[in-house]
Amino acid sequence: MRQRSTPEADGGTRRDVLAGAGLVGLAGVVAACGGSDKGGTAASATPSQAGQSSGAPEQASGDLGKASEIPVGGGKVFPAEKVVVTQPQKGEFYAFTAVCTHMGCTVGEVSGGTINCPCHGSKYSIEDGSVKRGPAPRALAKMKVTVKGGDLNLG
User: Fold this and answer.
1) Fewer CB within 10 A of the end CB, N or C, for the chain?
2) What residues contact residue 116 under an 8 Å CB cut-off, 6+ apart?
3) pLDDT of 106-154, one tens digit each?
4) Structure pTM?
5) What is the CATH number of the domain that holds 71?
6) CA pair distance 105, 120, nearest whole angstrom
């Protein structure tokens, strides 16, 4: 007669096996929401970031570069600072958190009058950060940006 193998006899319980499978599934979801840091297009979301967006990251004063680098009608993403700066009209600058309110990815580019997230296709207005196309549930948090001596500074 053949002896039936049980999970306990194989070194683990059914609960252990299911828990392991769940972690593998979670890793796939996190990988799908994140992106590559190559070219500054996206940052990986972690489970603690997924679904969370408390708004703006901490605002630290600092030089973001020359205001002249921000195209009129467009903008620039600063991935390291988690900030996106836009210039909808000449001389009119706005800053927003670059963290998508859907799953915490970093927005990847500003084009066509919108701030675009590469992870799931959310688009935000360059004028006020409002959602132009979901799945993002909320606008990007506004941040303070100033121009002094031709330089962009947060705070």
Assistant:
1) N
2) 107, 108, 109, 110, 122, 123, 124
3) 999 999 999 999 999 999 999 999 999 999 999 999 999 999 999 999 8
4) 0.62
5) 2.102.10.10
6) 9
